[in-house]
Automatic annotation (TrEMBL):
Belongs to the beta-class carbonic anhydrase family. Its EC number is 4.2.1.1. It comes from Romboutsia sedimentorum. It catalyses: hydrogencarbonate + H(+) = CO2 + H2O. This is carbonic anhydrase. SUPFAM superfamilies: beta-carbonic anhydrase, cab. It comes from the Bacteria. Gene3D superfamilies: Carbonic anhydrase. SMART domains: Pro_CA (SM00947). Keywords: Metal-binding, Zinc. PANTHER family: CARBON DISULFIDE HYDROLASE, CARBONIC ANHYDRASE. Its cofactor is Zn(2+). Pfam families: Pro_CA. InterPro entries: Carbonic_anhydrase, Carbonic_anhydrase_sf.
Length: 190
């Protein structure tokens, strides 16, 4: 850890001045999303500010869930759980699945990633043990070949989920990570 910038120290120092300077005041809102929407998007850093700004979303407008690739891995995993909570507890009536072009999860080289894991000192036996326990690491790490297809799959998963009410509208969008331009893959009103 020598010569390494301790990121948390720096962050906490800034945080103190943020709170003391009352810079939070312009973000004050309630926990209920004003626009009654939930967005599932990718953790890509280019979208951090660009996505809400390009959609005219301010603090308090939307529930935003993020992960690698804006993908729903499992119908009863944490992403679906968040969407269901948003619908029933926060009166959300539209769901937007927002992927983006140039996503790191598109054609992700899982063999290469597994090699990196091994090079960082995770024993090969661990991979074997997981494999024996029925966990296919390559399948677990796998992203998708086409962002449009991935978005379509996620839209139909939400739309057909047994715990999602029929009247919930689900859209599938793909964003340009440079300009914020949105292409509609699935128009939930149709
Ligand atoms: Zn991405």
């Amino acid at each position: 850890m020598k010569n390494k910038i301790r990121k948390l120290d720096k962050l906490l120092k800034y945080n103190k001045s943020f709170v003391e300077g009352k810079k939070y005041e312009k973000y004050e809102t309630s926990k209920d999303p004003d626009k009654k929407i939930v967005i599932l998007s990718c953790m890509d850093t280019r979208l951090t500010d660009l996505l809400p700004k390009s959609m005219n979303l301010k603090n308090g407008d939307a529930k935003i869930i993020k992960n690698a690739g804006a993908t729903i891995m499992h119908p009863f995993g944490s992403i679906m759980r968040s969407i269901i909570v948003a619908i029933y507890e926060f009166e959300v009536d539209e769901v937007l699945i927002v992927g983006h072009y140039g996503c790191g999860m598109c054609n992700l080289n899982t063999e290469d990633l597994l090699n990196k894991i091994l090079q960082r000192g995770i024993p090969a036996e661990t991979v074997t043990t997981l494999s024996n326990a029925g966990i296919n690491i390559l399948k677990f790490l796998h992203g998708f070949e086409s962002v449009e297809e991935s978005i379509q799959d996620s839209v139909s998963l939400v739309k057909n989920h047994p715990l999602v009410p029929k009247e919930i509208i689900v859209h599938g969008l793909v964003m340009c990570p440079e300009t914020g331009k949105i292409d509609v893959v699935v128009d939930g009103y149709k």
